[in-house]
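Much of what follows relies on a compact textual record of a protein's fold. A record is reproduced here so that you can trace the correspondence yourselves:

. . .
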Amino acid sequence: MNEYDLITLPNGIRVVHKHVTHTKIAHCGIMLDIGSRDENPDQQGLAHFWEHMAFKGTQKRKAFHIINRLESLGGELNAYTTKEKICFYASTLDIHFDKSVELLTDITFNSVFPEKQIEKEKQVILEEMSMYQDSPEDAIQDEMDELIFAGHQLGNNILGNVDSVRSFHKPDFLQFLNENIDTSKIVFSSVGNVPIKKVVKIAEKYLGHIASIASAKVRTPANGYSPSVQNQDKDIVQSHCAIGKRAFHIYEKERIPFFVLNNILGGQSMNSRLNLTLREKYGLVYGIESSYQPYTDTGMFSIFYGTEPDSLDKSMDLTFKEIRKLQDKVLGSSQLQTAKNQIKGQLAMSEENYNSIMLMMAKSLLDLNRIQSLDSVFEKIDKITGVELQDLAVRELQRDDMSILTYTPKK
């Protein structure tokens, strides 16, 4: 990332800004280093529930006024929760940047968690859970997390479970915030045609008065991993398959080479090896994709696809056959260069999305305490060798180390 400004407020909240002159839209967000893995056993789903409740009332606004504040100006207000992060963010015309920051600060730090709204939102979240359960391609991803991280918070569903969601009341939210809020682990990030002096002035105006808070809570380290194979009969027509294992965390040097290896095998592009074989050559799947998700102390590699029940075994054999090809033969110089060019092009295109840049800067600061420039990432990619990728495939993609979860139609 080039040309960004970074300051730290007296309370520990960091402010990072990238000044872009050729846009009229300002993107900004408040990201907290809190996620579903920070929940106690009786708090499952509380982080995500808090994300919902932030929009349901503050000390000076009711839900309608929160929703209408930016929407009436043509802007957007949104939020998301992951295993390790919660983020509230907004996009508006740059002339409304001040309003965005004020509103984001209000919903992040001044929510009042009205009991009536909590009861109403419980039903909304339960409907959200049902929606995912009715979608096997989504449900199998959540259950794969549980299989890979069995007995650990990273394996818990971000939405929680029916019993936990129904049990929450206002004191639960307040307790969760008191246990986890740490102003040194909060970043305000922005991208747009707003001078840094103005950004700092507005950040100090709305975020500077937040009391400095330190949390003593320590995340539970990832536990041990044992591969598991499971099948579930479902009321479905198509079979679904998930294959995965633990992978590198964000601080390991193999992270970027493994990211490239994953992209070759089953990345989002249509020319990934798995897509070319299972879809284009054999017509066994509509879509197949592998992914690599690094966390702060562990990571997860996974493959997902759906296929006809009679093709489940064949598609799985072909999947592992493609993995074996990466293990048995070093990529030729032309193939390797193509793979590098592809991943660099994808990363460069992501930098055309200013909202994505804003979110990336915040996450990078929270996880790495720095923001990598695109050139430095390219430099690391250019140094990757075919032998290195082959070695990673041999060490990290052994079939015996993979967990496999399948959904098959009830007979």
In short: The mean pLDDT is 96.
